[in-house]
Amino acid sequence: MSSCCGQGLHLDPAVREDARRRLRSIRGHVEGILKMLEDEQVYCVDALKQVKAVQGALDKVGGLVLKSHLQNHVATAAQRGDAGDLVEELLEVLKYR
Amino acid sequence: MSSCCGQGLHLDPAVREDARRRLRSIRGHVEGILKMLEDEQVYCVDALKQVKAVQGALDKVGGLVLKSHLQNHVATAAQRGDAGDLVEELLEVLKYR
Amino acid sequence: MSSCCGQGLHLDPAVREDARRRLRSIRGHVEGILKMLEDEQVYCVDALKQVKAVQGALDKVGGLVLKSHLQNHVATAAQRGDAGDLVEELLEVLKYR
Amino acid sequence: MSSCCGQGLHLDPAVREDARRRLRSIRGHVEGILKMLEDEQVYCVDALKQVKAVQGALDKVGGLVLKSHLQNHVATAAQRGDAGDLVEELLEVLKYR
Q: For C47, how many CA atoms within 13 A lie in the half-sphere containing its CB?
């Protein structure tokens, strides 16, 4: 699935657990917005705020995964010899959106 | 729920429907990441990409709601006389994250 | 220069003055980074922080201009009859980067 | 100036040169906006577009410095033994704004 790198590099188990916990809560938050949008009287800005809140929660998940990747894989890249590929890949994903 | 404004201002029904359709797909995408994170071998950057993709989809939803709000409520604010409040509120939510 | 709209719509003089004052300070900040980068011993993250600080200051300028535009031009758009164009144009510029 | 790290870590000379070249051009761009804002007839969105363009150019500079930092300092951090500090510091600056 990954383009270039990551063979044998796995997300830290504790971070993976934390990310899953947060994503379950995010799924619930999305459910909440869906419910909110059933109401014909919903106000645009109230919906907008909820969307932003979910994005903030996703930022948090992304930050955890990024930190783990930097610490466990990027910081050790020179030792493994794949620094060039890993850095390119990371920069690509950081400007993704 | 809304702080200052929005009395009698409702999200356009067609936009509301579109947003719901997209949010159901986003919920499915979050499910997909949860499944992905069950795998002990998952690679950080693959997870990161999926998180970014969901954020992109949420940006889209936010953009639709924002457009509708600008067109239906902000652009008519001077006629109603609540421009000051509506603009403050909007700027607040735009820098939310 | 502007694509579609803005005929006869001018930036509020006080905001224009404030933006100029801030941009002069931003120019000085850029000068400072240029000076900083003359030093062969400069540390990446120190440079990065300064770049981010300038971007924060530019965000501020953008926010002022945006607020003025929303208040003086978007909120009155329905009265003038150019809401559609103005909103399209604004959404375009908001996702510019 | 830097909080925790960076002793003996210097920005790559070629990147430093490239960043300076770009920042000189950015300074000129800021000059241009200052001139633009002397005009009483300037349209908000035209000013906004220029501000966004400068931010895009600064993103580019930031990206170059970040890439160099990742490659030359973060990827070698495990060898030096300062991975923890460097990663904390980097995450801090990435969410700066």
A: 34
Prediction ipTM score: 0.92
**DSSP conformation letters of B26-47:** HHHHHHHHHHHTT-TT--HHHH
Q: Which amino acid is at B55?
A: Q
Q: Which chain B residue's Cα is nearest to A58?
A: B51
Length reported for chain C: 97
Which of B6, B19, B11 lies closest to B89 in space, CA to CA?
B6
Residue ranges of chain B whose pLDDT lies below 70: 1-3, 96-97
Report the pLDDT value the prediction gives residue B60, as an integer from 0 to 100.
96
How far the first Cα of chain C sits from its last, in Å, is 19
Domains, chain A = 13-94 (1.20.58.1000)
Q: Do C65 and D55 touch (CB under 8 A)?
A: no
Interatomic CA distance for residues D78 and D66, integer angstroms: 18
So what's the pLDDT on residue A7?
A: 82
Q: Which two tokens stand for residue C44?
A: 């990446």
Q: Which chain C residues are closer than 8 Å to B77 by Cβ?
A: 75
Burial of C13 (0-12, 13-18, 19+ CB in 10 A): exposed
Amino acid at C16: R
How far is residue B39 from each of residues A1, A11, A61, B53, measured CA to CA in Å? 13, 10, 17, 19
Q: Which of residues 26-85 of C touch D (CB under 8 A)?
A: 26-27, 30-31, 33-34, 37-38, 40-49, 51-56, 58-59, 61-62, 65-66, 68-69, 72-73
Q: Do chains C and D touch (3 or more CB pairs under 8 A)?
A: yes
- The pLDDT value given to residue D8: 87
Q: Is the pLDDT of residue C18 over 70?
A: yes
